[in-house]
Every structure is written in C-alpha cells, then in structure tokens.
Automatic annotation (TrEMBL):
It comes from the Bacteria. It holds the Pfam family LEA_2. It comes from Lysobacter arenosi. InterPro entries: LEA_2. The lineage of its organism: Bacteria, Pseudomonadati, Pseudomonadota, Gammaproteobacteria, Lysobacterales. This is LEA type 2 family protein. Transmembrane segments: none annotated. Residues 58-140 form the Late embryogenesis abundant protein LEA-2 subgroup domain.
Length: 166
C-alpha cells in the first residue's frame, strides 16, 4: 500500500512536470515577434555639383524587427516650398532590422530650386526640404509592399565643404 501511494504521487508529479515542459517548449517555438513598421527616408547630405545637378545621399531607415529589401524609391523633393524634382532609384538594398543605410541619387533640379539652394549656401543659412512619395520594400519572407513617405526637415551648409548641405 505504501509503495502504491508513493507511485501515485510520483506519477502526478511526472505528469505535471511533462505538462510544464511542453508549455515552455511551445512558448519558445513561436520565436521573436515579426513586426513590420513603415520605413522612413531623409536627406543626409545634398551636394550641389559644378554642372548644376545635385547629388542627394538618401538615408533609408528600416524600423521593422526583421530585415527588409528596398526595391524602389520614388520621392518628390521640395526645397524652400519650391518643387525641385524627383528622387528615383531602384537600390535593391537589404537593410537589417532597426537599421539604416544610405544610397546616392542624382537629380537635375528645377531652376527655382537651384536658386533657393544657392541662396542658402551663399547666406550660410539652412534650407528647408520636404519629401513625399513612396518606398517599395519586401519584408523578409513576405510580399512586396509600398510604404508612403512624408518628411519635412532642413539642411545646413557644411563648414569647409563648399556646395554641401547636411
């Protein structure tokens, strides 16, 4: 009788331990949360070239918890409330989770935008800009998605670097 009572107690504990182990393993199998957040873009540096074209270093930021492949960028650029042109690229760039990378996009700006940039550089003052458009990206193991982008900021002349705004 005594052995039977001990056996029942151990059987109950073994069953409870098995259930706890199964629940723990089930919790581990789900892995980290796969969160896809809207990416962002901003101009890190704008260089006015001798031929009048601009070179924009566009910083693309991936706020997702998973890697994303950035396939296309199509952003309208305004400087000082004046349409400058479009920043278009097909970078084919993979950016890790919660990371960023920079691509260079050239632009032949509108005349009024050229004047606004030249004025800001000559006066040593900042130049306000706006980006609107979309970025096409594919989340890791997902489908291609188009993300809307709206960004307003300003660039200032870089000391010692003629024609460069940061």
């Amino acid at each position: 009788m005594k052995h039977e009572a001990i056996w029942k107690r151990w059987s109950g504990l073994a069953l409870l331990l098995s259930l706890l182990t199964a629940l723990t393993l089930a919790g581990c199998s789900s892995g980290p949360v796969r969160r896809v957040s809207e990416p962002s873009a901003r101009i890190q540096q704008l260089t006015v070239r001798a031929d009048g074209s601009w070179s924009a270093e566009l910083r693309i930021e991936n706020f997702s918890s998973i890697p994303m492949r950035f396939d296309a960028v199509d952003l309208a650029l305004k400087v000082a409330d004046t349409a400058a042109g479009s920043l278009r690229a097909q970078p084919g760039l993979s950016i890790g989770p919660e990371s960023a990378d920079v691509i260079t996009v050239t632009l032949a700006p509108q005349a009024a935008a050229k004047l606004a940039a030249a004025d800001a550089l000559a006066a040593g003052r900042s130049l306000a800009y706006e980006l609107t458009g979309h970025i096409d990206a594919t989340p890791d193991q997902g489908k291609l998605r188009s993300f809307e982008v709206e960004r307003s900021s300003a660039l200032s002349p870089a000391p010692g670097l003629p024609g460069v705004l940061r």
